[in-house]
Design goal:
The chain is built from 18 helices and 22 strands. The protein folds into 2 domains: about 190 residues, Rossmann fold (3-Layer(aba) Sandwich), CATH 3.40.50.300; about 240 residues, 3-Layer(aba) Sandwich (Rossmann fold). The protein is an alpha/beta fold and about 500 residues long. Strand 11 and strand 12 form a beta hairpin. Bound molecules: adenosine-5'-triphosphate. This is ABC-type sugar transport system, ATPase component.
């Protein structure tokens, strides 16, 4: 028997079979990838493993011992540590309080708990080489990447035998991914079992030695990564062949400027930003993470108010005092954190989709049910969102399908200018392909798109040109003919690209 053995696990939610008779095994010192389309059942499997979810049938054995945990705390005590896809830290308490939540701290000399946990957290952060984060900082003040690191530290520092990383890299900046890679190598040496869920093939190959592929709730194959090509894995995962991962890039730029930004400044985050966006153009935003990219998209979508500068739409100055005003002008944002900024998790899938466009389907205060159905069917179909019942809460969808809902609901507004913040985060390769096609199609129809991505390959293959940001300024604009990964990287670190 392997060190971790899952036998015949099944889980059904209403009519949806999330897991069907799944067998899975992993051994100590192994980094084992789980690969599968959005909604294939990967998160459900690990939620069952971590007793966050009950299962209908099946058994789980860790080091030969049958797991009987019915509560996440019991699973953690039995050796299962899970870093979840949607961050679970509490924003209004400190890093130290989050790390020691639910842990008794021994106190023999009546020193305050606060002092002890701050000191211990300082040591932990030093051990994990992230001393730039302060123990007393409130988690809500951290960047997404920093929050993700704390979440990882919280789980790994509890010394569990199994460490599950569910899409842990998708919220990390490039240098933090390197940090995680180093950490995973250490965990491997410590003979822990690491389960690594990701949609990024490159990372799977870098981090893992074995991969198990899931399709529609079933384990459809386990492979030694040295002996299998990406094409075979993707075909197994999707049950079909994907031809051409990126769509053909056709120049659809029109000679008509849609959006013009003049001398835009916002606190310390943006300084004298100037650029134009034409109809039919896809413009990427690149640069190292945290160089003002988020602030720029927030300012253009009316989420923050710039102190200086002007924004013109079709040559006329517009006031973008709040997101509603921006939407009324046809400017919409797919935000960074889908769970807190993009969706109302408790509401149904249907309500989330309809929220921004209620006025389109209401008349004299009544909802036109036929129009409503047509809009909803179109939204679900256009992005192949995997829903059981559209009246289920949106939080019951898999992470990638939630992201598709965010995009679909904004598309219903038929926007002129689409602002995309890393919108393929957590989305499977098949759907990424659909989303890229959608972006290029929208451009061909005359829309303009500002596309921020942490994935340089995406920027090169999807955008017409890329603005590289550095210290709140636009350092360079890399034109179509010069658009290579190397040029974006060079420009990001301050080199001139000729
Ligand atoms: N609490 C729930 N209620 C209803 N359906 C659920 C619930 N949790 C998961 N599901 C459904 O089970 C299926 C498997 O979802 P799961 O989250 O395991 O997928 P996943 O492979 O992790 O996807 P992703 O790559 O998007 O994270 C999906 O169809 C999802 O909608």
């Amino acid at each position: 028997m392997a060190d971790l053995e899952i036998k015949g696990l099944s889980k059904q939610f209403g009519g949806i079979k999330a897991l069907s008779d799944v067998n899975f095994s992993a051994n100590s010192g192994e980094v084992h990838a789980l690969l599968g389309e959005n909604g294939a059942g990967k998160s459900t499997l690990i939620k069952c493993l971590g007793a966050c979810q009950s299962y209908d049938t099946g058994e789980i054995f860790l080091e030969g011992k049958k797991m009987t945990a019915v509560h996440p705390k019991e699973a953690m005590d039995a050796g299962i540590g899970i870093v979840f896809q949607e961050l679970s830290l509490i924003p209004n308490i400190s890093v130290a309080e989050n790390l020691f939540l639910g842990i008794d701290v021994k106190n023999r000399f009546s020193i305050s708990r606060k002092k002890i946990i701050n000191e211990k957290t300082k040591q932990i952060l030093k051990e994990f080489e992230i001393e730039d984060i302060h123990p007393e900082t409130k988690v809500g003040e951290l960047t997404l990447s920093e929050k993700q690191m704390i979440e990882i530290v919280k789980v790994v520092s509890r010394n569990t035998k199994v460490v599950v990383l569910d899409e842990a890299t998708s919220a990390l900046t490039t240098n933090r991914v390197e940090w995680l890679l180093k950490l995973v190598r250490k965990l491997k040496e410590e003979k822990r079992i690491i389960i690594f869920i990701s949609h990024r093939m490159g990372e799977i190959r870098e981090f893992c030695s074995v991969v198990t592929v899931f399709r529609n709730g079933e384990n459809v194959g386990t492979y030694d990564l040295d002996k299998v090509e990406n094409d075979e894995l993707i075909t197994t995962m999707l049950g079909r062949k994907v031809t051409g991962y990126y769509p053909e890039k056709v120049n659809t730029k029109q000679n008509r400027v849609a959006l013009e930004v003049k001398n835009l400044s916002f606190e310390n985050y943006l300084e004298n930003i100037n650029f134009q966006l034409s109809y039919g153009e896809v413009v990427g935003i690149g640069g190292l993470a945290g160089q003002g990219q988020n602030s720029l998209l927030l300012a253009l979508s009316g989420c923050v108010k710039a102190q200086k500068g002007e924004i013109l739409l079709d040559g006329k100055p517009v006031k973008l005092g709040n997101p509603k005003q921006a939407m009324d002008h046809g400017i919409v944002l797919v935000p960074e954190e889908r769970a807190t900024e993009g969706l109302v998790l408790e509401l149904s899938i249907a309500d989330n989709l309809l929220l921004p466009c209620l006025s389109k389907i209401t008349r004299a205060g009544f909802i036109d049910r036929q129009k409503e159905k047509k809009l909803l069917d179109h939204a679900v179909e256009s992005l192949s969102i995997k829903v059981g019942d559209i009246q289920n809460p949106v939080k019951s969808l898999s992470g990638g399908n939630q992201q598709k809902v965010v995009l679909a609901k904004l598309m219903m507004l038929e926007p002129k200018v689409l602002l995309l913040y890393d919108f393929t985060r957590g989305v499977d390769v098949g759907t990424k392909n659909v989303m890229f096609e959608l972006v290029r199609d929208l451009a061909a129809q005359g829309n303009c798109i500002l596309f921020y991505s942490t994935d340089i390959e995406e920027l090169v293959n999807v955008c017409d040109r890329v603005l590289v940001m550095d210290g709140g300024k636009i350092r360079a604009s890399i034109a179509w003919e010069k658009l290579t990964q190397e040029n974006i990287l060079r420009s990001s670190v301050g080199e001139n690209v000729q």
